[in-house]
Amino acid sequence: MKKYILGVDVGGTNIKLGVIDKTGSIISRSRLDTKSYIRSKNKLIEAVITEINDMFSSCNLKKSHFVGVGIGLPGLVDPINGIVKFLPNIPGWKNVPLKKIFEKQLFLPAYIENDVNMITLGEWKYGAGKGVSDMICLTLGTGVGSGLILDGKLYRGAGYAAGELGHIPLNEKGPQCGCKGYGCLESYVGNQRLQERAAKIFKRKQIVLEEVTDLAEQGNLRAKEFWQETASHIGNALTGVVNLLNPTRIVIGGGVSDAHKFLFKTIEKTIKNRAMKVQASMFKIVKAKLGGDGGIIGARVLVEDMKSLKRKKKE
Amino acid sequence: MKKYILGVDVGGTNIKLGVIDKTGSIISRSRLDTKSYIRSKNKLIEAVITEINDMFSSCNLKKSHFVGVGIGLPGLVDPINGIVKFLPNIPGWKNVPLKKIFEKQLFLPAYIENDVNMITLGEWKYGAGKGVSDMICLTLGTGVGSGLILDGKLYRGAGYAAGELGHIPLNEKGPQCGCKGYGCLESYVGNQRLQERAAKIFKRKQIVLEEVTDLAEQGNLRAKEFWQETASHIGNALTGVVNLLNPTRIVIGGGVSDAHKFLFKTIEKTIKNRAMKVQASMFKIVKAKLGGDGGIIGARVLVEDMKSLKRKKKE
Asked: What is the pTM of this model?
């Protein structure tokens, strides 16, 4: 019986692969080094397909046990037509019909999606967003991204580019952002910006954020204030989103969210203080539950959703 | 044959009523003065029902010609259960089961909705948003509101409070807003705030916005700059919304939008300059087409949507 899904999460550093069972658990995993294949799109695809075939045999599972394959990619993806539009950090990927390529070589249904949307799907069905219909999944890392579950469905936007919560402007005359906009949330709380700010505060050439968290744990006031200020920026951006979308759940993940002990209360307080009464009374902030596995586990949700969409269209 | 819908648009000043045919045209209209009934919820309801019955007879139409009644109200409405949660500017309305009350007295299906959502539905199906799946409908008046069409459906939010685009913060340390937040778009471009700013600029005790528009028409530089600054605030707020929701259409209506000649180009330029590439390339800004009739005409869309929802649930 078909019951497994193979999830692939293509990141800038690693390509993570996993076999996911019906309960959303990963029963087998594997990993490739993205850098080894970054120069050639075809080599990357070939390596992933070889790895998938190896996983089939090492798990003692046949292809017929699999519903399909779900692949998450760090860039603009058209999941309906199965085309990777472009990947900003992996050169050579422009309008690649990846769904077709995978299906032709694997003889299994394949579906593709943006990586943050994949994490959002995973957290929604198997993680911190279980049971809710309106959820924001915010990922805090080098980039600040988000996925939106609205009315019990992933909302992708007209050009599949929705969810750029990191590029909501916090101030009209804010600093220029990498996206060419001004005052974007990411230009305040993106990893690099945070490290620069921390280095300045602690008068060091370099300081990693984990150390700032450790210092905060030890009661260091400047470290606590650093996270408080970061949280208040995030809370200000989320205030607009809460007023606009009226969600019940805000799931926060990504490396920076490891400092949740020093972030979440201030984020919540900021929104409760600034957002409108009804909206402010309805949301809950929760840490992402699936960690680095969200992208793989989300593949299960993607594949099932896309297959049911196809069924509905046939009816 | 059932083909007409009766639309009611309850506003702070007027209650507008209209009979809408299959093409979305109003074939008969009527109007009540809200102030005469503002002290008593029951009198207001009674007056509307009497007026509806009068319209039936004056149009030579029978009840059996009507699919149903759609009522828009200026406040928080639960359209699924048919309950008016509260109306901020009409006292005495709290948790009123208005759908039930109307259906009991009219012997026709009745549906209720927030007024801005009603305008959004009208513009989407019969106005400036025809044919698109992802649309923001912004209303610029005393308040700044919006309705969201996402994935070909009105998005209401978990507590039916979504769409508060007027309460997206423009600046972290902005002025306090009536909603208790800070730096909200409405606290920059709400009608009252604009009039105050205009009075200061033109060194007058009072000046209406129509006059500022007339001055701009005549080439007055300060008037043109006034509208440009207003447009740039609106554009900055919409930049975040465009990045987050990736719509293809932005419909702008409400009294302030009468100055569209001096607003729309700057709004569009601001978003194109600040928003992300894909999102910035996809949207179009259009003036609302239905004017003051949007709320009544939207009733047609609401009634049909709610009826088809009911049918689907039965299946």
From this structure: 0.97
